[in-house]
Amino acid sequence: MNRRRRTIIALFLCSTLSAFAQQPAPAPQPLSGLERYRNSRISIYMNDFGELSRYRDANASLKPPLAGENRVVFFGDSITDMWKLADSFPGKPYINRGIGGQTTPQMLVRFRQDVIDLQPKVVVILAGTNDIAGNTGPMTLAQIEANYASLAELASAHQIKVVFSSVLPVHNYTPQSQEMYEQRSPAKILELNRWLKSYCAAHGCIYLDYFSAMVDDKGLLRKDLAEDGLHPNAAGYKIMAPLAEAAIQQALGEGSR
């Protein structure tokens, strides 16, 4: 190759690289709601994945159950966290250990501290919707089911009766419900509930069916029960409370046999 050709090629490469350098960088794509949520939780995921700090002090100040006390722990995510148990179950020794946004891997991390160590007779577990949404990363139904089974086995090893609540339906009837609905496949909710019901029948747990009492004729959560398509309002909890109480009494009755 002669000097002239090398010069021409060098000039061509320089002009091409210069053209690329002058092109504006592509605009960043807006983050999805789930991506924004995950980013906001990085510190928690890295420093206290199970959020053991949330109830550590409350647990330390809680006295052991009295003789004959039918202590119950409600264990779950935001749907449990937001539930005012004292209003729904006045005078009952029911303890709320819900944490908003949690998935079953996180709940497994804190199960000993927030359930076993409190010595309840019954634990009412409501989970799964955030696993389906992928709050702590993508999860298959098989992985979610394995975590449920681990929770039940830990409870059984400590003579705690297990009430597994169905995953609640979701809806997309309001503007604020669209994102919640998109993250939670109704088909996956149905499949997970079928597994929960089957697991309970095979392993002596109680299946608490909120789903059937709250679903509409389209297979979605009734619009009047949740403004955001996921979290029950007062009317929603009013439906849930007697169903939970009946399941607890069933569990206590079986536990005394």
Structure description:
With 257 residues, the chain is an alpha/beta fold. It has one domain: SGNH hydrolase (Rossmann fold, 3-Layer(aba) Sandwich). Helices cover 51% and strands 9% of the residues. The chain contains 13 helices and five strands. The chain has a five-stranded parallel β-sheet, sandwiched between helices. The longest helix has 22 residues. It starts with a helix and ends with a helix. The mean pLDDT is 91.
Short summary:
This protein is an alpha/beta fold. It has helices at residues 3-22, 33-40, 42-47, 56-61, 78-81, 85-88, 104-114, 129-133, 141-157, 178-183, 186-203, 210-214, 234-255; strands at 72-76, 94-98, 122-126, 161-165, 206-208.
Global Rg: 25 Å
Unreliable stretches? none
Widest β-sheet, arrangement of strands: 2-1-3-4-5
CATH topology: Rossmann fold
Count up the helices: 13
Question: Which oligomerization state do the chains in this entry correspond to?
Answer: single chain
Query: What global shape is seen?
Result: globular
Largest sheet: 5 strands, parallel
Distance between the termini: 95 Å
Question: For the record, what CATH class applies?
Answer: Alpha Beta
Proportion of residues in β-strands: 5-15%
Number of structural units classed as domains: 1
* Strand tally: 5
Q: What's the architecture, going by CATH?
A: 3-Layer(aba) Sandwich
